[in-house]
């Protein structure tokens, strides 16, 4: 049901997207910090909705559909607005491109495999990738100016966030390759002729 708490949390993650974008567009240190906090709370719901769905036995096809969509919208919008505002300095634009391209690749694979009734399970490495990626984007949203608002400018969020984004991009390539090979393997099995038989061509 759409009104189940796990699904509501997933929808709240989607609802956070325009708020994060609007706060970054204000170009104010306080707004940057607020964007980072909103993003952080939304990121927590990524874990919480799945945990509640399992513990309450409220897992549903709707939730399984909405959850990856919400994740991709949140991260994709954050990276694009940061790029648009010129805040992906120090080469951070390149890992951001890798991350976005991987999300498109995996989405395409999932859509194809769903058509042949094959699931593409999330690996443990992919979960680590997601965690590092969310932390990196949260730090980049806060920025050094945002961190100074609460006296944490010394941690250099831009430097730390950029480094973590590169790590996330490396994990993205590894998990993307895993998903691609799994997708090709399933597609090859689907296209192969039945065992013991000979595929006939039209005569």
What does this protein structure show overall?
The chain has helices at residues 5-25, 29-55, 61-84, 93-115, 124-149, 157-191. The chain has 203 residues and is an all-alpha fold. It has a single domain, classed as Four Helix Bundle (Hemerythrin (Met), subunit A) (Up-down Bundle), CATH 1.20.120.1760. The radius of gyration is 20 Å and the shape is globular. The N and C termini lie far apart (51 Å).
Major beta sheet summary: none
Q: From the alpha-carbon coordinates, what is the Rg to the nearest angstrom?
A: 20 Å
Quaternary structure type: single chain
**What is the beta-strand fraction?**
under 5%
Number of strands: 0
Q: How is the CATH topology named?
A: Four Helix Bundle (Hemerythrin (Met), subunit A)
CATH superfamily: CDP-alcohol phosphotransferase transmembrane (TM) domain
